[in-house]
Amino acid sequence: MQSTMSRRKVAPGAADAAESGEKQEQLLLSSAICNGEDLGPFVRKAFASGRPETLLHNLRHFSRSKESEIEEVCKAHYQDFILAVDDLRSLLSDVDSLKSSLYDSNSRLQSVAGPLLSSLDSFVEAQNVSKNVDFALQSVSSCIKLMGLCSRANHHLSNCSFYMALKCLDSIENEFQDKTPSSTLKRMLESKIPEIRSHIERKTSKEFGDWLVEIRVVSRNLGQLAIGQASAARQREEDLRIKQRQAEEQSRLSLRDCVYALEEEVDDEGGFGGDENDGYNYGNNGFLGFDLTPLYRAYHIHQTLGLEDRFKQYYFENRKLQLTSDFQVSSMTPFLESHQTFFAQIAGFFIVEDRVFRTGGGLISKMEVENLWETAVSKMCAVLEDQFSRMQTANHLLLIKDYVSLLGVTLRRYGYAVGALLDVLSKHRDKYHELLLSDCRKQIAEALAADKFEQMLMKKEYEYSMNVLSFQIQTSDIVPAFPYVAPFSSTVPDCCRIVRSFIEDSVSFMSHGGHFDFYDVVKKYLDRLLSEVLDGALLKLISSSVHGASQAMQVAANMAVLEHACDFFFRHAAQLSGIPLRMTERGRRQFPLSKACIAAEEILSGTLKTKVDGFMTLIENVNWMTDEPSQGGNEYVNEVLIYLETLVSTAQQILPPQVLKRVLQDVLSHISDKIVDTLLGDLVKRFNVNAIIGIDVDIRLLESFADNLAPQFSEGDANQLKNALAESRQLINLLLSSHPENFLNPVIRERNYNSLDYRKVVTISEKLRDPSDRLFGTFGSRGAKQNPKKKSLDALIKRLRDVS
Questions:
Q1: Averaged over 376-399, what is the pLDDT?
Q2: At 45, which helix (H) or strand (E)?
Q3: Would you call the peptide bond into 771 cis, given omega within 30 degrees of 0 as the criterion?
Q4: Is the pLDDT score of 68 beyond 70?
Q5: Are 473 and 575 found together in one domain?
Q6: Which entry of 26, 162, 372, 759 is 20 to 30 Å from 7 by CA?
Q7: Extended strands (E) in 197-321
């Protein structure tokens, strides 16, 4: 208080403000009390500010202010109070009488209501008992239903009907668990329901795990079956193409009546592409053993358990791991032996995944399947690249390529993109053909090495069909009598079989690989096989192994047959490639074995020339200054003619006319050259007209030999044979001419002496001696006139020397 007073003294303005605040609080407190409001805020504020005395002071002040008001009210109504008290006193007697009557009435009521109250108590008690009994009945009924559901759930669990068991658990949870009157049952349900759900999840997960193990074996069998059906379908297509090619060939070769029939194509049993009979089974195992029931059951159970997303992830991860393990290539087993299992496993995997995607109700998404497929394609491409790079046998590469192409056909039916796999196959096209060329090179070398240069003997018709008709190298459409001696040796059909096998392998590799127009590729490698491999092997054979005229003649005959076979090779390649024959026949190609053919004819001609040279040495026995001309030909020409006639009789049986014509033309040209060279050489120092007449007879015999071959050749070919003797014939004609100086006339020389070299004419003409030039002949004919022919010949020699 002292401090407050001191503050008031020091700051009178602050004291006034405090007094006005107290007055305001008193007014607010008075207003709240008058209005009947709550005084709690005022009390809390007083204690919060630490001044409860102020609140008490205000309350006392309010009470004192109200006491005076009460006194004034009492003073104002004092008379009324007295009157009221009098009225109350007058009512006391009435109250007493009323009280006695109420007492009597109560006594009578008690006497009457006593039995009723006891009955009411009994009724209330009975009603409570009835309620308790009803509640008990309801509880028992609820427990009975609960136990029934529990029993049903146990029955479903024992029968592995997990979905029905879960539905029972859901019913128990929704309808009974919170409403169960038995705390024991409630505790039991709270503990057992999670355990049952966990048990169901474990059981379904175990079944799903067993299915994952089983589906790997099923996938492999499924992939093998699917690829096998694709192979069967491809074989049926090939058979149909073969029939079509045969019909086209018949229609091309003849106009025979063709029988046409419609064939009903039977679909594959249990085809894989449909939705109904597609080999898939959703319940029990079908004939493929393809059962998705455990998978869908596990998926449905996890959906019911609210674990759908977790099961999807679990399924995808496990299948991805399985696919990764399927990619493992065993290093202990050659890939050629394991490739079918490897690719069949992957094919079966994606056939299963396609079915799961289409029927699994969202178990796996399209994007996930595509991601798995992309992973598989990249891995298969890597495996193929690695294995192809190691392979050194064309047949092995072809086997794997065929199976991969069947894999592509199979999975393309399910919508999978297989372009990358086919690109890998196309990428190794060149390597395959190089390996194939290498194999054919070895086979051709072995076939040629085994050739005995003897005509092939065929005893049965099937041998003729296998070795001749199958390659269209027959010379006539009429089947010959058997035994039949072919004009070629055994190496021809052997080489034809090798080339045909090359064509078929090449077409097999190129077909079913996503390329439809591959004839140009097959033709390119066929050209290489013929022009590089076969032609080179034949050239080597001709240069190293051919000895004697008979062997050379047989090789030349073989080459002529191979020329016809080459046309068949290109037609066969076109047919297998699906190219119309008219397109291949339209663009005729150069004979690819031309080098070997030329070499064969050259070695035959060379051999014959060597043999002829042996007979031509007899020309040394000719009497060049004979008095009488030879009438029957000189000895050498008779021997040559005997040899040539024997040769022709043998060659006609195996050599084609054109080949025989070219060889004889070369031999006759060689004989002509030998005659001219003999006259030109040092062996003949001089000769007379009688000797030239004898040579003229020799040439006429040779020309007669050529004329006798006219029935076997065309007229033009017979003339070409005679033209082979042109140089010797023109030389003899010039020497026997009565006007040799006509050689100087360009027109006459071009017409009659175009094959003569004027230098040879000079040399040979100088050796010609007239009979008058004999020793001592000038004494008897000193005054005689000079022979005009001799004069003309001397003029010719002089003019030709001047020119030279």
A1: 85
A2: helix 40-49
A3: no
A4: yes
A5: yes
A6: 26
A7: none
Q: How far is CA 788 from CA 291, 668, 749, 768, 777, in A?
A: 118, 34, 20, 14, 17
Rounded CA-CA distance 62/57 in Å is 9
One domain, residues 722 and 766: yes
Cα 450 to Cα 536: distance, rounded to the nearest angstrom: 17
Written in H, E and C, the secondary structure of 584-626 is HHHCCCCCCCHHHHHHHHHHHHHHHHHHHHHHHHHHHHCCCCC
Residue indicated by tokens 């050689």:
743
In total, how many domains does the chain have?
Answer: 4
Inform me whether the pLDDT recorded for 541 exceeds 60. Answer: yes
Range of the domain at 123: 43-159
Query: What pLDDT sits at residue 1?
Result: 38
| CATH number, domain with residue 666 | 1.20.58
Tell me: do 588 and 634 sit in the same domain.
no
Do residue 688 and residue 757 come from a single domain?
Answer: yes
- Using CB atoms within 10 A of its CB, is residue 275 exposed (0-12), middle (13-18) or buried (19+)? exposed
Same domain, 240 and 331: yes
C-alpha Rg value of the chain to the nearest Å: 64
- pLDDT at res. 231: 82
Nearest to 357 by CA among 326, 316, 325: 316
Task: Please give the backbone phi and psi of residue 399, each rounded to the nearest 5 degrees, phi first.
Answer: -60, -45
Domain membership of residue 353 (yes or no) is yes
Residue type (1 letter), 684: V
Residues 6+ apart with CB under 8 A from 721: 661, 664, 665, 668, 706, 709, 713
Length of the chain: 804
Residue 389: what are its φ and ψ, rounded to 5°? -65, -25
Picking from 416, 441, 470, the residue at the C-terminal end of a domain is: 416
**pLDDT exceeds cutoff 60 at 150:** yes
Confidence class of residue 7 from pLDDT cuts 50, 70 and 90?
A: very low
Beta strands in 34-177 (DSSP E): none
The model's confidence at residue 55, banded by pLDDT at 50, 70 and 90, is confident
Does the pTM surpass 0.90? The reply is no
